[in-house]
Amino acid sequence: MIKLQLPVSEEAIRELKIGDEVVISGLMVTARDAAHKYIHENWPDWLNPIMENSMIYHCGPVVKQHDDGSWSFVAAGPTTSIREEPYEASVMEHYKVRAVIGKGGMGAQTLAGLAKSGGVYLHAIGGLAASLAKSVVKVKDVYMLEELGVPEAFWHIEVKDFPAVVTMDSHGGSLHTTIKAQSDEVAEKLIFG
Question: Residue 123 catalytic?
């Protein structure tokens, strides 16, 4: 198990290979569909300090607000990442984001972007939203809550020992592509003998 502390350097991320298991601690930000569209249309400077050498989590959380105004995560499962394919490579390069976390993998455009700017794609386990929420130890801030709503807002969170697996790396490796090819081969044998 490889421990990653955020912020993390490009050099440390480029050492990761597909199949590596990691646990992450530090500050990261959630962003999903509407957030990525907003970024791509506005490129706001206020995102620089919370994204540089950090990670974007494709997550639409369930959150609870306490009497003192603070927030905590109740569920923090990954959402389907391929929806961010049109945006992710340019977002990562612009803000020097070192990883995105989600489920299902991403496409060729993002894979090329990971190699160019020094990033990885991390697969979080779907169906474990309540367990993953326990890794979110603090909600530091939330941005654009009123404009985007709870699932789509930018949640700046502190995580401790958040588990994930490297499924796309900066060397052109993609477990999603490899497993798809292997599955297609097995399916062809089953169908055509």
Answer: no
